[in-house]
TrEMBL record:
It comes from Nothocercus julius. The lineage of its organism: Eukaryota, Metazoa, Chordata, Craniata, Vertebrata. This is SDF2L protein. Residues 27-81, 89-144, 145-199 form the MIR domain. SUPFAM superfamilies: MIR domain. One of its GO terms (cellular component) is endoplasmic reticulum. The gene is Sdf2l1. The keyword Signal applies.
Length: 214
């Protein structure tokens, strides 16, 4: 069993011991440090990664969409930029810059100017080591209120290349048969809405400044 799979239950247990919800904090907000799955609302698949590399383009770890709701390789941890702007337990604001780190492999959701293998949009990959990659790992959460609420459908816009995290339905064959291509699209449309699903949500902290970013 890969080391990341063994560590996942321990990580989830640690997160369950997170700080209590603060009086007056945004109810139902997605918070920094939470571990969750993201559902594409148009195609009903969850954002996923695994130790399978692209056979073309960058050759980096592939990112796909899967229908299964119980796959441990679909967990992502919400983190901020390296400046500590996303402290554990702090509600994520609409317009905030975040990183999404794949729990089992420690790589960040990433995109760059390579064509995606099936649709010829922009390739989305998982990149870095132990949660540290580069400036192309940064995404802006686009939502309509003050904070990213768990029930909201939101978009993720890439800071470095201005594309939106998207799925349009193309399916892979061997060795990841049936999984959907995830890519970046230049236009905001119904293919790039995502919703927080299963996971462990850190409750808003009484004093977020006392808690380090995960």
């Amino acid at each position: 069993m890969p080391g990341g799979c063994r560590l996942l239950p321990l990580l989830l247990l640690a997160l369950l011991r997170g700080p209590c919800r603060a009086k007056g904090a945004a109810p139902g907000a997605v918070t920094c440090g939470s571990v969750l799955k993201l559902l594409n609302t148009r195609h009903s698949v969850r954002l996923h990664s695994h130790e399978v590399k692209y056979g073309s383009g960058s050759g980096q770890q592939s990112v796909t969409g899967v229908e299964a709701s119980d796959d441990a390789n679909s967990y992502w941890r919400i983190r901020g930029k390296s400046d500590g702007s996303c402290q554990r337990g702090t509600p994520v604001k609409c317009g905030q810059a975040i990183r999404l780190t794949h729990v089992n492999t420690g790589k960040n959701l990433h995109t760059h100017h390579f064509p995606s293998p099936l649709s010829n949009n922009q390739e989305v990959s998982a990149f870095g080591d132990d949660g540290e990659g580069d400036d192309l790992d940064i995404w802006i959460v686009q939502c309509s209120g003050t904070h990213w609420e768990r029930d909201d459908a939101v978009r993720f816009k890439h800071v470095g290349t201005d594309v939106f995290l998207s799925i349009t339905g193309e399916q892979y064959g061997h060795p990841i048969r049936g999984q959907r291509e995830v890519h970046g699209m230049a236009t905001a449309n119904h293919h790039n809405y995502w919703k927080a699903m299963e996971g462990v949500f850190i409750k808003p902290s009484m004093d977020p400044a006392k808690h380090d970013e995960l």
